[in-house]
Design goal:
single chain; 171 residues; alpha/beta; two-stranded antiparallel sheet; PRTase-like; transcription regulation; uracil phosphoribosyltransferase activity; EC 2.4.2.9; PRTase_dom
């Protein structure tokens, strides 16, 4: 569905959209990637912002494990957030690989708000596959991919999986 070139093209478009939407407040822009695959995507967007506008936006990674409403098992694996800046007063762009029901985005907002009070929170995703259960909408979408509920969208990234690609699997 998406090759490395398609992912790169989508992230360039998302990066340009972020610059356009925040043109008057670029100095307060920060990127926070939702672990696991949102973090490398946030770094890629940051690299694009640097290349396009010379903007050195701070980047962090957010572990939402303890904020999820679908935890199973006795001992969830907590990876730990790494946000080396104060989010208070910043326009924080949450970055994730796939937007589906909206529950991960809600958990990410909850986790982020525990760290401070951003001026605004925006959501950027590589793939929006629909099927919302919560009233959440991405501000920046790389690709809209209509799917059936029984299908899954698998995102592979060089940083985590050794290669870039997005595929839809299942019925």
């Amino acid at each position: 569905m998406l090759t490395q070139d398609g992912i790169d093209r989508s992230l360039r478009r998302v990066s340009h959209e972020i610059l356009e939407r925040n043109a008057t407040s670029l100095e307060s822009l920060a990127l926070v990637g939702v672990l696991t695959r949102g973090a490398p995507l946030a770094h890629r967007i940051s690299s694009n912002l640097q290349r396009f506008e010379g903007l050195d936006a701070p980047v962090g990674s957010l572990d939402i494990t303890l904020h999820r409403d679908d935890l199973s098992g006795d001992e969830p694996e907590v990876k730990g957030s790494r946000i080396p800046f104060d989010v208070t007063g910043k326009t924080v762009v949450l970055v994730d690989d796939v937007l589906y029901t909206g529950r991960t985005a809600r958990a990410a907002m909850d986790a982020l708000l525990e760290l401070g009070r951003p001026a605004a929170i925006r959501l950027a995703v590589l793939v929006d596959r629909g099927h919302r259960e919560l009233p959440i909408r991405a501000d920046h979408v790389g690709k809209n991919v209509p799917t059936a509920r029984g299908q899954r969208v698998l995102v592979n990234l060089e940083e985590t999986d050794g290669e870039d690609g997005v595929i839809v699997v299942g019925d």
